[in-house]
Amino acid sequence: MSTAAKQRQTIRFRGRSFLATVLAPELPLGEWLAELDKLAGRSQGYFASRPVILDVSNLPITKRDFTDLLATLYEREIKVMGVEGADPSWLGYGLPPSVSGGKHAEIVHRPSAEPPKPQQGFADRPIPSLLIETPVRSGQSIIFPQGDVTVVGSVASGAEIIAGNSVHIYGSLRGRAIAGTTGNAAARIFCQKFEAELIAIDGLYQTADEIDAKFRGKAVQAWLADDKMNMAALA
């Protein structure tokens, strides 16, 4: 055996987790793409360098529709890293691979028309959390899919907080707050001064121009009820 072979190190495999955005198109695709363009336009840079999973499960489209959709997303600089629910014959060389097995968090309680209250014993359950003790600057992304994110300070325009559960901001929210990313519709968003570019809970988004102006500059909370975003001022 040569000296080079003896000195060659063993290949090491490292595990690492990444949080991806899942896009689930709906028919008609033209209208869905128009809404996607509105979202991207209202929140500049949201899809930049962000991995995306395209979920076409149970979507009645042809292979041609599928390839056209991928091309259209590529034109929008949306990087599809994997496809869920596609016919295996549609995939191949040069196309994103098939993926499956995405994990969803347990929904502890169902949302209601009023700000949701914890169930009996919920306070006793350990919830992972991440504490950020400095302001979040423009261009920064804080991603914590395991639980809550609390920011002791402000979140600047162009910054984002992404949490598997709830988001708590003890300052101004000028950027993006995205809660319940692992499927938790009971997650909430709290902030002391609401000036957000975008908020989202469990995949349901609202941008600045869609939110009632009466909440601007106020201390608020946001939650979901019947697949609709709800907001209320904090006393």
Q: What does this 3D model show about the protein?
A:
This protein has 235 residues and is an alpha/beta fold. It has two domains: 21-90; 127-233, Pectate Lyase C-like, CATH 2.160.20. The protein has helices at residues 3-7, 29-42, 63-75, and strands spanning 21-23, 52-55, 80-84, 129-132, 141-144, 148-151, 160-163, 167-173, 176-179, 189-194, 198-201, 204-207, 220-225, 228-233. The strands form three sheets. Strands 4-6-8-10-13-14 form a six-stranded mixed sheet, with no helix packed on it. The chain has a five-stranded mixed sheet with strand order 5-7-9-11-12, with no helix packed on it. Strand 1, helix 2 and strand 2 (52-55) form a beta-alpha-beta unit. The chain is elongated, with a radius of gyration of 20 Å.
Question: What can be said about this structure in brief?
Answer:
With about 240 residues, the chain is of the alpha/beta class. Helix content is about 15%, strand content about 30%.
